[in-house]
Amino acid sequence: MEKRLPFRAFDGAFGTYYFQLTGDDGPCERANVDNPSLVRRIHRQYLEAGAKAVKTNTFALNAQVFPDERERARLMREGYHLAAEAAAPYGAKVFCDIGPVADGETGQAEEAYLEAARAFLRLGGTHFLFETQADFAPLKPAIGEIAAKCPDAFVAVSFAVSQDGYSQKGHFYRALIEQALSCPEVHMAGLNCVCGPVHMAELMRRLPETDKPLMAMPNAGYPSQVGGRTFFQDNAAYFGEKLAALAAKRPMVVGGCCGTTPEHIRRTLACMAQTRTARVQGAPAPEVRKKAAPGVSVFDRDWTKKRVAVELDPPTDADFAPLLEGARALQAAGADLLTIADSPLARTRANSILSAAIVKRETGIEVLPHLSCRDKNHIAIKGELLGACYEGIRQVLAVTGDPIMQEVFARRSAVFNFNSYELISFIEGLNRDVFQESPFAVGGALNVNAQSFASELKRAQKKEACGASFFLTQPIYTERALSNLALARHTLRGKIMAGFMPVASYKNALFLSHEVSGVEIPQEILQQLEGTTQQQAWDITVPYAAGLMKQAAPHCDGYYLMTPLRKTALVVRLMQEGLA
């Protein structure tokens, strides 16, 4: 049974309502000092509409938006006092509002949340709302600090997810809310922002029964862009009807987010008063969808021998024939699996999953597309994985991807939501919630050439904790890399495919050695290759790589062979000598 609700309704949006009243699209938190009477009036309008709790006008008060520490402290102080002053005559609760902090350096978000929590504690805050969050983990230190300094504090956490239930960090909403509610110091959790009332209601109805109260604060709907500005429809009556219907079926604290006004809260409470509460015990079991092309990943099958995976690059043009020709040649030579790179070195190539699907369809060989999060957000990634599922692809290699240098030098923000850890976690979440019948095996990269291999191993262990079940290593050229491979085999649980790439020429070796991160070719090999013909170069590099493959055999589950410059004949020769 859910506990009695601590109150019935939060207020609605502050920022979008402030813009509606003033036309000022700058940070509304500055109004705490520049226009305190308006801030006070907005709070009172929500209270007069029936809200029993107001949020301080402090959503974006962090160092990323307000780098001046003194200004930040002053705006927070005034924001808290204005909300408290407005709430006092109504006996309403004041929630110290802490919005999301974008990822930066390690620990940056945690520090920002801690700073905000400590500032509010000094001001006398007793109710805290961490809202519009994409992840729960960074909040834990701040929540712990609140509990330690104010044992009677009430802490609520609200997550922002898309219509399909995933946050910007790729976490599924049920898992996020479960994490929050399982924390003893959190008293209420739910959703806010991104979704309109209908989609948020659908998500909330699917939640299982909880011991702690839930909350829902949807946007007014989905906005339109006019002249570079965002506008929401005036739909208070519709909003109130939909949100009241949700609260009737599943009692919870309600409120509003972007686009809502005092009228939205007034209409919601009026509709709730007219609606007979029909309590639903728990949520219906989620519908189990029929999945396309069920199957088991090659990495989840029994391996009686070492498997051989060979990497091919998709084309940079509209000519797909060379890729299929190379795939057929490698299949005939005994390759068990073809891996398809995802625009390596950030050079645009055909989509890796589409390319892998065509190769699998035309040849029947198993494929392992690389999936980079460098230039895709979670919407695009989920779409690609759905396509891979339909094509019977059951394994992916999750990588961050090589940086796009134009964005690095222009200091522009990239598209992606994830790093490789978060991408692996995202796919594992989809395995539980979308691909239950035919989950993906998820792999990660392992750089055995790393200068600090102890740190690289820790990263690999973190990938395993996120859900990685196999690893593909960078190409091995040195005894040090072999030693690191042996250490990895001793440390990691997942399958390890040891990487090898025979260089095609002296020029190719120089390029790989000096321009490609993670590749280390010994100086003596470079010296032997200097001045050689292609055939002479192959006569040097193939036996050398084959010898390393045999040394690596006790420490790996298979081989990952990379094809340089589309020279599939070179890799076929390495397979013949290295597997002999």
Q: Could you outline the blueprint of secondary structure elements for this entry?
A:
Elements (H helix, E strand, L loop, with lengths): L14 H8 L8 H4 L1 H13 L4 E3 L13 H19 L5 E6 L9 H16 L3 E7 L6 H10 L4 E6 L13 H10 L5 E5 L4 H9 L8 E4 L6 E3 L2 E3 L4 H14 L3 E2 L7 H13 L32 E6 L8 H13 L3 E4 L11 H12 L2 E7 L5 H13 L4 E5 L5 H6 L9 H14 L7 E6 L6 H14 L3 E6 L3 H13 L3 E6 L5 H10 L7 H7 L4 H19 L5 E5 L5 H11 L2
Parallel strand pairs: 1-2, 2-3, 3-4, 4-5, 5-6, 6-9, 10-11, 10-17, 11-12, 12-13, 13-14, 14-15, 15-16, 16-17
Antiparallel strand pairs: 7-8
Helix pairs in contact: 3-4, 3-10, 5-6, 8-9, 9-10, 11-12, 11-21, 20-21
* Major β-sheet profile: 8 strands, parallel, barrel
Q: What is the radius of gyration computed over CA atoms, rounded to a whole number of angstroms?
A: 28 Å
Counted up, domains total 2
Strand order of the largest sheet: 10-11-12-13-14-15-16-17
**Text of the CATH class of the largest domain:** Alpha Beta
> Can you tell me the overall shape?
elongated
Q: Output mean pLDDT.
A: 90
Beginning-to-end CA distance, first to last residue: 66 Å
Portion of residues within helices:
40-55%
What's the count of strands? 17
CATH architecture of the largest domain: Alpha-Beta Barrel
Task: Note the beta-strand portion.
Answer: 5-15%
